[in-house]
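Ticket #4471: structure export looks truncated?
Reporter: QA, pipeline team
Priority: medium

Steps to reproduce: submit the single chain below to the structure queue and open the exported record.
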Amino acid sequence: MKVIIFLLSILFISSGYFINDSFAEISENQAFLLEGSGFAVTEESIKTSEIDLALSSQQQSGSSINFLIEDGFITLGDDEFVVSDLKGKFLREGRYIRINGDIESSTGLDTSISFFGRLVEESKEASVYGFTGRITTSDETHKIIYTTKLSTLSKITITSDSEESDITIHILKGSAAQDTNDITPGMATANLLRFFSIDRISIHPGTTITIVNDDITNHSIISGKENYGDRYDPFTPDGRISTGDIAPGESTTITFDGLGIYKLYDPDYKYMKIEAVSFPIVDNFITGSTTNQQGN
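Actual output as written to the record:
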């Protein structure tokens, strides 16, 4: 009987450990940074590997929450891969994380990943997960072992007197036209589905970007939460960014005072959007265009 009571006590303590507050920190429509490192192993070699991803949590279903991976990179030895099409899920109230999908190298090499993470420890600031899984290229499959930190990208206050203004984004001529019947003579038809000169950026907190309106009608840019799958109301304003009207030929500036993922869009033309990820640890860089672009 004492043995049974002892085993039940151990089980109770263990389940108390696993029923933790991690899920309270993981909720819908939040931004996270998953960063860490480890090794990628084949029969022939062991390579170092790093992971740095920005996550955007979506709708909750039971004890699980889906998330999209908005930006980031994974290294495999000397090769660097950027996000192509990655999705994931927080499982069992945040105890586990699953990530699957595709990444792409600078040379265009398509690679798939399948990762599974388990919660190891947590603090008020972040949680530590151990990941195992595979990175599969056209040539070989690497087994990975990572130790990572998952932290919430929360808003902060910038106290620096200096502001950067090293990124300029142009609203392209013809962006307000929703179909070819609205295009005036002389507009480049190659740009019909390309609305901004840059539509996906990563920046430091405190960075100021310039928006230039090269279109023939007024535009404005605000930020909001993206309602995935809702074609009639794709965004809900969040009040963080609002430029007011930008007249043709005029410009305005936007300063990103916080960490996280900014969804920027024109409330009058909601198909026009920019994704901005504010990272605390990397230099400013442009991560490329999204599927808004068609042709050149």
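Status: closed, not a bug. The export was complete when the record was re-opened. Leaving a note from the reviewer for reference: Helices lie at 2-18, 22-25.
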